[in-house]
Amino acid sequence: LVRSRGLGDVYKRQKRWAIATRAATAFPFAYDKAFRELAGDEMSGAIDRIERRIWKEAGEEQAVIARELGCPRNNAANVAYTFSTLSTVILGPDLQGYVGEGEGDTARVITTSCPMEKNGRIFQADMGRVCKDCYTYTSAAVKSLNPAYRIRHEKTMCTGDSTCEMCIEPREPR
User: Fold this and answer.
1) Residues 164, 157: contact at Cβ < 8 Å?
2) Mean pLDDT score, 65-86
3) β-strand partners of 170
C-alpha cells in the first residue's frame, strides 16, 4: 500500500489524538465512579488521597516532557506557555484557551473549554473534587516546570465560572 502524506494524514493524526485523549481523560472519572460505588462512603477519604497522588504525578510529568522538548521555563510567561501547551498535549484538543502576559513577572492562563470539567459533568462527579484534582495537577505541573513559580486559581469552571483563570507568579520567599 502507498500512503499519502498530504493533509489527509495530518487530519487523521489530529483526529486520532482527539479520540485517544478524549478516552484517556474519561478514565479517571470512570475509575472514580466505580471505586466510590464499590468502596462506599467510608473509603472516600482514602480514594481522594490516592487520586491526588496520581494527579500530582501527572502534573510532575510536565517537567520530564519539557526537558525532552527543550521548552523554555525561565520566567512566568515561558512557564505559562509551556504549561498550557503541554496540558493541551496531555489532555487533548478539548482543552482550549490562551495565555497572556501579566504585570511584571506574571502570566495569565485562561481556559475556555476543559475536558476535565466536561467529564465531571458527564459522570456526575462531585465538582468540588474535580476542582481539587485540577489544583493538584496544575500546582504540581507549574512547580515541576520551575520551582520558583506557583499557580493561583482565580476563577474555575468547575464551580460555575464561565472560564478558568489562573495566574503564574513567583513564589513568595520563605
Assistant:
1) yes
2) 96
3) 149
Q: Mind listing the pLDDT tens digit for each residue in 18-61?
A: 888 889 999 999 999 999 999 988 999 999 999 999 999 999 99
Task: Determine the Cα–Cα distance for residues 166 and 135; give it in Å rounded to an integer.
Answer: 10
Nearest 5°: phi and psi at 143? -60, -40
Q: Give CA angle at 22 (160, 164), nearest 5°.
A: 25
Percent of the chain scored above 90 by pLDDT?
A: 83
- How many CB atoms within 10 Å of residue 152? 13
Contact criterion met (CB below 8 Å) for 62 and 141:
yes
Q: Which residues of 60-90 are buried (b: 16+ CB within 10 A; e: fewer)?
A: ebbbebbeeeebebebbbbbbbbbbbbbeeb
For 132-160, what is the mean pLDDT? 97
Percent of the chain whose predicted confidence (pLDDT) is above 70: 94
Distance CA 111, CA 154 (A): 12
Confidence of residue 6 (pLDDT cuts 50, 70, 90): low
Instruction: Give the DSSP letter string of 13-67.
Output: HHHHHHHHHHHHHHHHHHHHHHHHHHH-GGGHHHHHHHHHHHHHHHHHHHHHHHH
CA distances from 79 to 59, 100, 168 (A): 13, 12, 8
